[in-house]
From TrEMBL:
Protein keywords: Ribonucleoprotein, Ribosomal protein, RNA-binding, rRNA-binding
Gene transcribed to yield this protein: rplV
InterPro entries named among the record's database cross-references: Ribosomal_uL22, Ribosomal_uL22_bac/chlpt-type, Ribosomal_uL22_bac/org-type, Ribosomal_uL22_sf
Keyword flag RNA-binding: yes
Pfam families registered for this protein in UniProt: Ribosomal_L22
Descriptive protein name: Large ribosomal subunit protein uL22
Function, in words: This protein binds specifically to 23S rRNA; its binding is stimulated by other ribosomal proteins, e.g., L4, L17, and L20. It is important during the early stages of 50S assembly. It makes multiple contacts with different domains of the 23S rRNA in the assembled 50S subunit and ribosome.
Origin species: Brevundimonas mediterranea
GO molecular function, one term: structural constituent of ribosome
Length: 126
């Protein structure tokens, strides 16, 4: 019994990469994702290289992965790629407790998030 072929979730001129379980809040990750959305990939890589946000290095790796997927899996020209979509989603939240005064405790939430980057050839985006 053969496996059925997976359907493509993106258009033929697009490629995508996803990173899950990133230990940062979705709000902070969304700021970095918004800073590269709609940019050409070379400009987006430069933006992430010189960003002062800690998570920018992980987002840069995901963008490199999306570019590599476009080149190797879908035969797209990497010079014409644009970051078509960069969106963030929530993931699990670790719940911890911290000791407080007078025998009390307070909850500490440690959120995780995920990012998906879709790159598209610039001829199709315009």
């Amino acid at each position: 019994m053969a496996q059925t072929k997976n359907i493509r979730r993106v258009a033929p001129t697009e490629a995508r990469a996803k990173l899950v379980n990133i230990r940062i809040s979705p709000q902070k990750l969304g700021l970095v994702a918004a800073s590269i959305r709609g940019m050409p990939v070379q400009k987006a890589l430069n933006e992430l290289e010189f960003s002062r946000k800690r998570i920018a290095t992980d987002v840069r790796k995901v963008l490199y992965s999306a570019i590599s997927n476009a080149e190797n899996n879908h035969n797209l020209d990497i010079d014409n790629l644009v970051v078509a979509e960069a969106y963030v989603g929530k993931n699990l939240v670790m719940k911890r407790f911290a000791s407080r005064a007078r025998g009390r405790s307070s909850r500490i939430l440690k959120p995780f998030s995920e990012i998906t980057i879709v790159v598209r050839e610039a001829g199709e985006a315009a």
